[in-house]
Amino acid sequence: MANSRFEYVKQYERMDRLLPETYIVIRIDGKGFHKFTKKHEFEKPNDLRCLSLMNAAAKVVMSEFTDIVLAYGDSDEYSFIWSKSTELYERRESKLVSHVCSLFTSAFVFNWTRYFDIPLLSLPSFDGRAVLYPSIFVLRDYLNWRQADCHINNLYNTTFWALIQKGGLTNTKAEEYLKGTVSSQKHEILFSQFHINYNNELEIYKKGSIWVRELEENESAPSKHQKYSTKQKRKMGLRLLHVSIIDNEFWNTRPYLSILLN
Predict the structure, then answer these.
(1) Domain spans of the chain?
(2) pLDDT per position as a tens digit, 213-234
(3) Which of 62, 74, 217, 242 is disulfide-compatible with 208, CB 3.0–4.6 A?
(4) pTM of the full predicted structure?
């Protein structure tokens, strides 16, 4: 901006630099997606087309920002996990959140026709927030929480919609039927009444989706005192998984993630 007598207005800008040496998680959530899914007649309890579209949009974000190490998505939300050493946009919250949210939304719209054979009838929108976590332990618990939430919600929704679509109940009656039930009871309802073995449901429904940066074959990770360059990060492959992130196996088989995250 050129110097002028009007430049004093810059003093009213709020500095929103995020705390250094913390793990940044930017989570986006669909805004008003209940109406959006109804208008586009999404399949219940899960619409694989939309989940695939969400994953495609997340990949665009991961490809754009090399400081995002992994991302976790379920339903109409996605969480992007940044390296704690990132200095992109000087760690300004408004810049990071707005760029991720706008890029994800535009990628969602741009790729719509790849997954849906109906036109986009209304504009999808997503809100975003940044949350800071002080340690890898707390960060992993955040991811554990999101995946556990995915399982709980999907088991409920699978049972709820089976009662409606196969059992002939109304929404209200199905809610009343499931009120107070625990996980084992929902499994029993699905199996005994509808011959559905929940364990055979698609992993993407039960565990959500994980985008992770992967080392190329035969490539060794640097020592814990070294860092990956931006060029090295761009060369890494992006792999989509539907596995347990709660189990240690995910982390133990990818020790290089701790280097990327730091």
Answers:
(1) 16-143+208-261
(2) 998 766 666 656 667 777 788 8
(3) 74
(4) 0.93
